[in-house]
Amino acid sequence: MSLSALDEGLAIPEAPAEHGTLETALRASRDAGRKLLVPYVTGGLGDDWADIVRAVADAGADAIEIGVPFSDPVMDGPVIQEASELALRSGATPVTIFDELRTIDAGVPIAVMTYYNLAFHMGHERFAQSLAAAGVSAAILPDLPLEEVGPWATAADAAGVETVLLAAPTAPDERLPRVVARSRGFVYAVGLLGVTGERDALASSSLVIAKRLKAITDKPVLVGVGISNAKQAVEICAEADGVVIGSALMRRVLEGVGASGAGAFIAEIRAALDAG
User: Fold this and answer.
1) Residue 221 class from Cβ within 10 Å (0-12 exposed, 13-18 middle, 19+ buried)?
2) What element of type H or E holds 162?
3) Does pLDDT of 172 surpass 50?
4) Which of 6, 56, 86, 87 could tie 44 with a disulfide, CB 3.0–4.6 Å?
5) What is the pLDDT of residues 145-165, one digit of tens each?
6) Is residue 59 scored above 80 in pLDDT?
7) What is the tens place of the pLDDT at every residue in 195-224?
């Protein structure tokens, strides 16, 4: 292996040379001049969550991130936590969410975001194969650090599941090339320190981390955490290839806007990005 985990001496397997479904789609849209938009939807939240997925896809999403609820999240802010708790109380599990995903023909790639405990508990190979069987293109495990990604990444690669890695705004310059080299699908630039949630203004750190990443990789760079509205999405896309929109969308879903309201919100952001 040409990449090594310097901190612990653990080998980090190289990512496959060929692009997977998610990265191929995002690269094609980006290279055609489109700014990328990836909404986050909590899986298992209400009877209409699959309709919400379809609605945001129809509204112009380039891919969709499905959150698999976990009882002890470390990255999620109050809105996503509430959505996850409600989903868990209603009986949502990874299995029920994966079963539902099999029935959703969104027309865009699907990525799953959850925590490593679920992958570890189910077993790397089984979890990766379950994702692939559900039509999921990629996985985001935000609490799994680069130095420990090897066993999971090997299983994910074998199943054809792209491993999206996060780049923190505090990451030193020497670490970022290792993150982007192993990441597939896109590089998830974390816009600010702290948990997910809406902010009144765009954090300056989000622009900085996007610029740092764009300087060292041609992989799609999307910024998430703290992107709250269309204006902020346009602002961050001056540096980044696109945005991940989570809390702002899920707050509206919790308020009861339904699939049509969720689609309208994403359509508003899509229009703003297209207008530049």
Assistant:
1) buried
2) strand 162-167
3) yes
4) 87
5) 999 999 999 999 999 999 999
6) yes
7) 454 455 566 889 999 999 999 999 999 999
Grouping H, G, I as helix, E, B as strand and the rest as coil, residue 152 is: helix
Instruction: Give the mean model confidence (pLDDT) for residues 106-118.
Output: 96
- Dihedral angle of Cα 12, 28, 21, 224, to the nearest 10 degrees: 60
Judge whether 247 and 196 are in contact, CB under 8 Å: yes
Tell whether the model's pLDDT for residue 18 goes beyond 90: no
Q: Are 68 and 104 in contact (CB under 8 A)?
A: no
Active site residues: 65, 76
Residue ranges of the domains in the chain? 35-275
Provide the CATH topology of domain 35-275. TIM Barrel (3.20.20)
- Closest Cα to residue 264, out of 111, 78, 272, 29? 272
